[in-house]
Amino acid sequence: MHYIDVIIPIPLQKLFTYSITASEFDFIEPGMRVAVPFGKSKIYTGIVYRVHHDAPTAYEAKEIQQILDETPVVNQKQLKLWDWVSSYYMCTMGDVMRASLPSAFILESETVISKNNKTTIDESTLKDDEFLVYEALHHQSSLKIQDISNILSKKNVLSVIKRLIEKEAISVEEEVYEKYKPKLVRYVKLHTFYSTEKEFHELMNDLSRAPKQRDVVMTLFYFCKNEKTCKSF
Predict the structure, then answer these.
(1) Do 60 and 43 belong to one domain?
(2) Which of 11, 29, 62, 183 has minimal CB crowding within 10 Å?
(3) For the chain, what is the domain count?
């Protein structure tokens, strides 16, 4: 059996092992990009780190989806540098990969594809599958890889996207999710209109038949005089 260890652009320390065919084993070199399945439905572009015959012991290796390059996009010296950066800065190889490569090189299932409006494309030069994607982007501002898979009715679409990038027909961006959500606390205070005694007494008179509301307003008035706010529950 033939295997490759792949760097995937996610913050996990270990590399992931995938199985390859004999013909792929003869062709693949470290530093090439491969499209690999991850989890139940995600697809990532990974960098081949090592080619070998050692089967993983903890899990059954999945097959790669496809090879994306004919020659390595990352050379051996750069892979050694990634190793050093990962060790020195105590980060994962996936983090180093994501920071080192342009987003167009890291196609994944959360990648957003849009039409490149900076160039004019001769649509007659596009292959059928390329044209379907390009035509869809005339009607929709952006597509995800899963959308393109649905349009083309096939799973392996990264090679189509790669060709469209090379023809400058599309642009690629990463969809970023904001993980940090600030904790917000709501406060209330008495309106500045009632900060004078005259307006405040008029308000009290208006609330003469609403004792609970009067108590709330009195509390707010107290905090207002002492330059405090009251937390809302």
Answers:
(1) yes
(2) 183
(3) 3
| Contact between 32 and 66 (Cβ < 8 Å) | no
Q: Residues 43, 9: one domain?
A: yes
The CA–CA distances, whole Å, from 216 to 106, 167, 221 equal: 57, 67, 9
Q: Which residues pair with 60 in a beta bridge?
A: none
Asked if 80 and 30 sit in the same domain, the reply is yes
pLDDT in tens, the chain (233 residues): 999 999 999 888 889 999 999 999 999 999 999 999 887 767 889 999 999 999 999 889 999 988 999 999 999 999 999 999 999 999 999 999 999 998 878 877 678 899 999 988 999 999 999 999 999 998 888 998 889 999 999 888 988 999 999 999 999 876 544 444 557 787 777 777 877 778 888 888 888 888 888 888 888 777 766 665 555 54
pTM of structure: 0.57
Length of the chain in residues, anyone?
A: 233
The CATH number of residue 140's host domain is 1.10.10
